[in-house]
Amino acid sequence: MYDVNLLRTFLAVVDARHFTAGGAAIGLSQSTVSQHIRRLELICGRQLLARDTHAVTLTTDGAVMVGFARDIVGTSLQAVDYFSGAAPRGRVRFGVSDDLALTRLPVILRELIQANPLLSIELTVGLTSMLYQKLDSGRLDLVFAKRQPGDDRGRLVQRERLIWIAHSELELDAADSVPLVLYPTSSITSALAVDALNRAGRPWFVACSSETLSGVRAGVRAGLGVTAQSPLLLQISQGDLVQAPQSAGLPELGEVEFVVLGRSVKLQGAIAALAALVEERGPALWD
User: Fold this and answer.
1) What angle do CA 239, 245, 246 make, to 5 degrees?
2) Whether 157 contacts 144, CB under 8 Å
């Protein structure tokens, strides 16, 4: 059995990438943090963290432990909340962008519902722009999606750099006009792709357009062109999709932020409870 306190310390160090900063986040001294990590490594019989004078990095076994630790600590906190009478209850109309829906998110949501039987989730999956429209019109209570440019609302869950994705056999030279596989122009990723190419002076054309991620993925897998997407798409591919090579000469796309947001800054009740759970468990989707 693993001590939840040791796992909690381990996650704090992982998130901060530093012993002292990780300890400060949970109110522990650096020496106590070091003791906790040594005890945890002794219990599991593996080195979990590689240390140097500047930063802390995960070993292969440490990366595996992160997933277990988040599950154990999260479940423990949910049990405490439930039996203390603080278990979330009520219905939440929850919107999720389709690239997130194809990850482990459904599994996490099922676990949340099982652990919180008084919480009911009405799930809507779609393009980020559509989810924001439904949120602002009162048809959704909470959204987990990319943050729209110029919008500072929401609580940050994950920040990542977009990449160009293509079929492994697609041939594209730096002088070629770029065949794009896109969402409609209202899409955040599509807009970033077009803007990046225009700034670079690179010609492009739309080879395939789809309202859904499955359609975009099908177009790329068919070798019709490249798409600008979260690296999450590579996680859910069947191995035939890759990051476009440097020889294609494609410009940098920049970063996107995945956030959870409601209709107001201060969330309450079941909506606040679900938002907190998404903040806690959401980063595991990128592990």
Assistant:
1) 160
2) yes
All residues at 6 or more sequence positions from 15 whose CB lies less than 8 Å from its CB, including other chains:
22, 25
Are the CB atoms for 194 and 167 separated by under 8 Å?
Answer: no
**CB-based burial label for 180 (10 Å; 0-12, 13-18, 19+):** buried
Give per-residue pLDDT as tens, 245-257: 999 999 999 888 9
Per the listing, tokens 């107001």 go with 264
248: CB partners within 8 A, 6+ apart: 164, 166, 172, 173, 174, 176, 178, 226
- 3-state secondary structure (DSSP) of residue 170: coil
Q: DSSP 3-state assignment of 83?
A: helix
Report pLDDT digits (tens) over 217-229. 899 999 999 999 8
In the chain, the amino acid numbered 144 is: F
